[in-house]
């Protein structure tokens, strides 16, 4: 029988089997997009082995992919972690960590001021999976010991809380959680690894909505979870592939591209936030301003202790309540009324009716979110243009 060669194949077969080119000594300047669901093997044993380990040969993109692996390596390096798992979204990262770590009957302690989606996940788990949830104010690390139960397993915190920019004493709270033997999880989305690296303060797990600052261009949905130790990463990876929360290679590539300019963007956005926070504080239509860089922020001293800068989120309360807060978005022309944040463009939103709509009036008040609260995500535009836009949209 004549041996099969590329030249001997019929057109119908050759059309399907396009050869992957070899690059020899050349290296691409950009991480290639491995837009493939499947990887082929010559050795059946190698295929079996690849499916059993997160760091072996790539076998199926739900298990791992060269492009998503490059993203994981990049963010783990920025955070100082042992490894990472990329996911389809920030919420996918959070839910995977919770499902992989908690069991029915467990108790989780969470910071009261958390992202509305996280609050919804925790309450949904409590209702459906029998997981108990308790909230702490974040004023004193002693709250952790006081709230402990025999079944407490996790402490969940945010570096800069969404949306009121609360900055708790992260090193002290992590120390309290670790002393109690809890798995400590920190959402570092608002700070990014450029402003804070929670693993250096004792966090076990760090989660990111990479949709926000890591991607930075409002064109990708992705998430990344970073782990202080390899054992925990492997454990969560096994749950991630079962849940199907894997990142798409193109989304991973877009996030990698965004990370390349992260230091430049964060520096500019923090500087712009400082300008706008000060000018908002002087406007008669603004009742109060929350930005950790201002001396009147209740956590300013704490923020100076473990943040390299103060972030690009400014929360402010408008005189007039909910109606005034909801109407502000109608008047802006440069800033955009949009639910998400962290991009190069400035966005604003009324949390009580959008990002934190899952919270009832009591929970909103407990989180410090007022009826007229606005969350401003400051972009990289000229600060004078941004202020002129806000000033003409503010009432009065």
From TrEMBL:
Enzyme Commission (EC) number: 4.4.1.2
Enzyme class: lyase
Protein name per the record: homocysteine desulfhydrase
Keyword Cytoplasm: no
One Pfam family cited in the UniProt record for this chain: Cys_Met_Meta_PP
Modified residues (N6-(pyridoxal phosphate)lysine): 212
Presence of the UniProt keyword Lyase in the record: yes
UniProt catalytic activity: L-methionine + H2O = methanethiol + 2-oxobutanoate + NH4(+); L-homocysteine + H2O = 2-oxobutanoate + hydrogen sulfide + NH4(+) + H(+)
PROSITE patterns: CYS_MET_METAB_PP
BP terms from Gene Ontology: cysteine biosynthetic process via cystathionine; transsulfuration
Record key words, sorted: Lyase, Pyridoxal phosphate
Ranges in a coiled coil: none
Needed cofactors: pyridoxal 5'-phosphate
Family statement: Belongs to the trans-sulfuration enzymes family.
MF GO annotations: cystathionine gamma-lyase activity; homocysteine desulfhydrase activity; methionine gamma-lyase activity; pyridoxal phosphate binding
One cellular component term from this protein's GO annotations in UniProt: cytoplasm
